[in-house]
Design brief:
Number of strands: 0
Strand content: under 5%
Order of helices and strands: HHH
Number of helices: 3
Length: 83
C-alpha cells in the first residue's frame, strides 16, 4: 500500500508541476545545453529527406493521381442525373 501512495504522490507532484509549467510558464525540468538545436537539426534533415523523396517521385505521384479509371457506377459530375 505504501508503494501505491508513493506512486500516487509522485504522479500528483508531476501533474501539479506540469500545470504550473503549461499555465504559467514556470520551468520544472532543466534542459540540457544544445538539446533544442540538436532536435531542430534532426527534424531539418528528416524534412529535407522527405522533401527530396517527394521531389524524386513527383511525376509518378501526379500520374497516379489522375490515372484512376473509376469504379462502375461512378459519374464524372457526382450526380445520378449525369448521363
Amino acid at each position: 500500500m505504501a508503494i501505491l501512495l508513493a506512486d500516487d504522490e509522485a504522479l500528483m507532484d508531476f501533474g501539479y508541476n506540469f500545470l504550473k509549467h503549461t499555465l504559467f510558464g514556470e520551468r520544472f525540468l532543466e534542459e540540457q545545453p544544445g538539446a533544442y538545436e540538436a532536435r531542430m537539426e534532426r527534424l531539418k534533415s528528416r524534412t529535407e529527406a522527405i522533401r527530396a523523396e517527394y521531389e524524386s517521385n513527383r511525376e509518378k505521384l501526379e500520374d497516379e493521381k489522375y490515372s484512376d479509371p473509376g469504379r462502375p457506377g461512378d459519374l464524372s459530375c457526382g450526380s445520378k442525373d449525369c448521363g
